[in-house]
Design brief:
15 strands, globular, 7 helices, Nitrilase/N-carbamoyl-D-aminoacid amidohydrolase
Length: about 270
């Protein structure tokens, strides 16, 4: 599987529509890849809180349409990062979209853990409640977004649903870049999965972004890492074989105890 992570620049120098067009062109340039990944909230910027409401769109709005066409034209599976979604009742969600090579929307994931404590995303957006996986030829993706990376129980749940490749689009700030790398490697090691973590470049509402998109294998080895600027990171992977081999050689997941069903008492 060839995966391309598009570490886009997000700043005030272009409009949302201009960025949609640029993202669409970048996706089309990845024809020949199997999976393409965009960052979190690349239409607005993850820290542009004041723009969330004005830029929110329905699940099948203009970003959906642009990304669907780009995935179809490139013939790739596309994790289109996330958008500020406005649900039918008016609630905003930070929602990731995954498209099949046909352009069909294969899955959507509403971010469960909202960042900001008592401000920003935490108060402006609703929380998702469902874990989501997507079946691709050769691997099962587990979906998470940015701040989710700090909550290992979410990823354990994805593994229980069959995930072999964890995809994490983000708008991670530069001042906590060390955490970004550390947590991506930790989630890979503890779950014996690949981690594809795609961040943004540029500045969101005055907050410099970490960049440094990263691909980590199930042993925690960094296979590729971007720099701070706009960059495309492309890596060839074999998740089905490597994950199975890792779990066979070091079967730590079999030794889990917390979360198991209570043992059935012996019969009379």
């Amino acid at each position: 599987m060839r995966a391309s992570l598009l570490q886009m620049r997000v700043d005030e120098s272009e409009s949302v529509q201009e960025r949609r067009l640029r993202a669409s062109a970048l996706v089309r340039e990845q024809a020949g890849a199997d999976l393409v990944v965009l960052p979190e909230l690349w239409t607005t910027g993850a820290f542009a809180f004041e723009d969330f409401d004005a830029c929110a769109e329905p699940l099948t709005g203009p970003t959906h349409d642009a990304m669907s066409a780009a995935a179809r034209d490139a013939g790739v599976w596309l994790h289109a990062g996330s958008i500020p979604e406005r649900a039918g009742d008016g609630t905003l969600f930070n929602t990731a979209l995954v498209f099949a090579p046909s352009g069909e929307l294969a899955a959507s994931y509403r971010k469960i853990h909202r960042f900001g404590f008592d401000r920003g995303e935490a108060v402006l957006m609703g929380a998702g409640g469902d874990l989501v996986t997507v079946e691709l030829p050769g691997t099962t993706l587990g979906l998470a977004t940015c701040y989710d990376l700090r909550f290992p129980e979410l990823f354990r749940g994805l593994v229980d649903m069959g995930a072999q490749t964890l995809v994490v689009p983000a708008g991670w700030p530069e001042r906590r870049r060390a955490h970004w790398t550390l947590l991506a490697r930790a989630r890979a090691v503890e779950n014996q999965c690949f981690v594809l973590a795609c961040g943004t470049a540029g500045t969101h509402a005055g907050v410099p972004q970490a960049g440094h998109s990263i691909v980590v294998d199930p042993w925690g080895e960094v296979l590729a890492e971007a720099g701070a600027g706009e960059e495309i990171l492309t890596v060839d992977l074999d998740p089905a074989r490597v994950v199975a081999d890792t779990r066979e050689k070091f079967p730590a997941l079999k030794d889990r105890r917390l979360g198991l069903d209570a043992p059935v008492p012996p019969g009379p």
